[in-house]
Design goal:
heterodimer; A: about 110 residues; mainly beta; six-stranded mixed β-sheet; five-stranded antiparallel β-sheet; B: seven-stranded mixed β-sheet; about 0% helix; globular
Chain lengths: ~110, ~110
């Protein structure tokens, strides 16, 4: 079967760095997405990786290793507004997105 | 403002009611989606429309009926729902469905079935 695994919840301190991991087993791979979803709001696009390596966008970076079926989202200089759920999704062989259940990130002062 | 607008934002309905959720996208996209989001579960894809034609229907019960009159509008008609259908229903759109195409979501319609 196809599966995306990510931790249910993580806690970090304002100003620190946090890494949210995502592992996947899918039939085929056509890219991996990270979305951010604040409570009661729409998921918003953060990043897309299709080749191995690190993609950096300001305070956020996303890494992909296709051979390991592994990605992480790295958030630096954490701010209180980063408290949200982070969703990992993989586009499989039929181009349909397979979603993880999301990681709830709690930022403490 | 995400470019995808959903109404109503909140809906409470009885099991014998008929209601509809509406979605409108202002992004010029040609694919639209309905997703169901339940607490602590992955997003569940319900329906996909591409160029106004339904291309995916993921074993959704017939009490959910989609309608896509044009590439900017998508409806989800609801009738004789069950309490387990209570969830957040998300509409989304994208330009195409292939490699790298990003999906943009609306803010969702919270549905409670009583």
């Amino acid at each position: 079967g196809q599966n995306i695994d990510q931790p249910t919840e993580m806690t970090a301190t304002e100003g620190a760095i946090v890494q949210i991991n995502c592992t996947y087993q899918t039939s085929g791979f056509n890219g991996l997405f990270w979305y951010q979803q604040h409570a009661g709001e729409a998921p918003t696009f953060l990043s897309y990786n299709v080749l191995d390596g690190l993609e950096e966008k300001g305070r956020f970076s996303s890494f992909l290793s296709r051979s390991k079926g592994y990605s992480y989202l790295l958030l630096k200089e954490l701010q209180m507004k980063d408290s949200a759920s982070y969703l990992c999704a993989v586009r499989g062989s039929n181009y349909q997105l397979i979603w993880g259940a999301g990681t709830k990130l709690i930022i403490k002062p | 403002e995400t470019g995808v607008t959903q109404t109503p934002r909140h809906l409470v309905m009885g099991m014998t009611n008929k209601k509809s959720l509406k979605c409108e996208q202002h992004l010029g996209h040609n694919a639209m989606y309905w997703y169901k989001q339940s607490a602590k579960k992955p997003l569940e894809l319900m329906f996909v429309y591409s160029l106004e034609e339904r291309v995916e229907n993921n074993s959704v019960p017939s009490r959910f009926s989609p309608e896509c009159p044009n590439s900017s509008h998508l409806f989800l008609h609801l009738h004789t729902l069950q309490p387990e259908d209570s969830a957040l229903y998300l509409c989304a759109s994208s330009q195409g469905r292939g490699l790298g195409n990003t999906i943009y979501f609306g803010e969702g319609s919270w549905l409670t079935v009583v």
